[in-house]
Predict the structure.
Amino acid sequence: MQDRKEDRKEDHLMATTNINVRVDTELKQAAEALFDDLGLNMSAAITMFLKSAVSHDGIPFEVRRFTPNAETRAALAEYDEMKKNPVEYKRYGSFDDLMTEVLSNA
């Protein structure tokens, strides 16, 4: 009888392997704090991600490049123009000087 229990127990155990991942220290600490609050350790959380990726047959969340909207593209183009031709744009001695002018024109 004991042998059958041991056989069933061994059937449920899976061989494991190690994965070494290099991440930013602050990211690791933040993730550990989050997972601890969720009652998980890093290994369990990574295992959950991997299982989800396999079941989704891909990354289990959207991965895409940042595409700025029209307003942001215009602002970036203006910034590039300002860098190329700084003499054509007004400069301020300090942020306070800039804010004084902005608020006086409001």
The helical segments are 2-12, 25-37, 42-56, 70-84, 95-104. The two ends are 86 Å apart (CA to CA).
